[in-house]
Amino acid sequence: MKSLIALLAAATVASTAFAANSIEKLPSGVVVEHLKEGTGPHPTADDVVRVNYRGTLANGTEFDSSAKHGGPAVFPLGQVIPCWTQGVQKMRVGGKAKLTCPAATAYGDRAVGPIPANSNLTFEVELIGIGQ
User: Fold this and answer.
1) Structural element, H or E, at residue 88
2) What pLDDT is recorded for position 20?
3) What is the H or E stretch that residue 55 is in?
4) N or C: which end of the chain has fewer CB within 10 A?
5) pLDDT (0 to 100) of residue 26
6) Chain CA centroid to CA 120, Å
7) How far is the C-alpha of 27 from the C-alpha of 52, rounded, in Å?
8) Which CA distances in Å does 107 have to 2, 10, 83?
């Protein structure tokens, strides 16, 4: 009996450790999967944010990353694609998330650089800070 209790306790700890990440689906269809919860404040659409990011097409092909540009990107959150404006506001400073962006919340029917028109996009985003 003692070993059964120990086995159940170990299974509970293991399932908690490997529990699914927190996932939010926004009304626009944007999905925010929190990979690491931050402890700082949430940005607003009026804030300038500092992030590390990696963007991929639905087939996994990387089309851009902050590393390609030499480090974190800084931009006004209200002046980017809707997926970013909506998704990054759900994050806290210090957090990491995967944003799944339906085409309508990304570039829609426009082709942009290596991104074909009507593309669903995925971004891994680390929110480093708010403000410049």
Assistant:
1) helix 82-88
2) 53
3) strand 48-57
4) N
5) 97
6) 14
7) 25
8) 58, 47, 10
